[in-house]
Amino acid sequence: MTASHGEHLTNLTLSVWRQKGPDAAGAFESYRIDSISDEASFLEMLDVLNEKLIDEGRDAVTFDHDCREGICGSCSLMIDGQAHGPQRGTATCQLHMRKFKSGANIVIEPWRATSFPIIKDLMVDRSAFDRIIESGGYITSQTGGAPDANLIPVPKPVADAAMDAAECIGCGACVAACPNGAANLFTAAKVAHLNLLPQGQAERHARAESMVETMDEYFGSCTNHGECEAACPKEISIDVIALMNKDYRKAKFANRKEIARS
Ligand code: FES
After folding, report:
1. Dihedral (C-alpha) 68, 73, 75, 81: value to the nearest 10 degrees?
2. Ligand 1 atom nearest 65 alpha carbon
3. CA of 170 to the centre of ligand 1 (A)
4. 70 Cβ inside 6 Å of ligand 1
């Protein structure tokens, strides 16, 4: 049973991965939290731990965070072996201590993925995602000022699918949860939200080819485990991967024809 609303959890043990730098050996260290409100967020609980460590003259635990409201994708923790912890559709910063119970031993690790090397403690380097976006996750035409919303009609199901894909916050949970360390859900979400909309059509084939091939340089291959969808804090469907694969196949034909013509 988890704690009920408004209670305090007591006697928590945190097993936290500590690593001084990218090349240093890491190890778990145990810390005790005597009492914490079940209304505290998981990151607030780590703030409490860090205040305690600083008071004791010890090194605070390094972890990524920014918006703390599920928007930026910075927070990135494996909690008891699950990316973002035990609550589905929830980023670490939105997870509350009421999901745990008094006396629990909570294991906290950084994202587990070769493509996301550890910088320090719980913070990893996710710049491999930036390489994918740089390779095609944009539109190059001049967009000018915001046009009237009805200037380019977009069917509602298409707009909905594009906006669902655009919910991706780039946190990397999909990669961390995947046994192959694949980034297909992330890449497919970024491809889909542009390739579905009229504004994305001019570069559709070039985008699909370039982003998939950049993804392949840095990440493992997708074998349809589906762990990515289960871990995604925005619950993005793996259907976008099918769409990306279809666009990639079409791109290989279309781009080949363009090369032959040139
Ligand atoms: S801190 Fe921004 S999504 Fe969690």
Report:
1. 130
2. 1
3. 10
4. yes
Compute, in angstroms, the gap from residue 43 CA to the centroid of ligand 1: 10
Is the CATH number of domain 126-142+149-261 3.40.710.10? no
Q: Is 65 in the pocket of ligand 1 (CB under 6 A)?
A: yes
Q: Is the CB of 163 under 6 A from ligand 1?
A: no
8-120 belongs to CATH 2.40.440.10? no
For residue range 208-253, list pLDDT tens digits in order: 999 999 999 999 999 999 999 999 999 999 999 999 999 999 999 8
* Mean predicted lDDT score pLDDT of the chain: 94
**Does the predicted TM-score (pTM) go above 0.85?**
yes
The tokens for 135 are 């390779």
Where in the sequence of the chain do the CATH 3.10.20.30 domains occur?
8-120
CB 73 near ligand 1, within 6 Å: yes
Alpha helix stretches (DSSP H) within 135-238: 156-166, 173-177, 184-195, 204-218, 227-231
Q: Which residue has the tokens 């976008």?
A: 240
Stretch 47-58: mean pLDDT: 97
Q: 48: Cβ below 6 Å to ligand 1?
A: no
In this predicted model, what pLDDT tens digit does every residue of 133-181 receive, in sequence order?
999 999 887 777 888 878 889 999 999 999 999 999 999 999 999 999 9
> Tokens representing 151?
């200037």
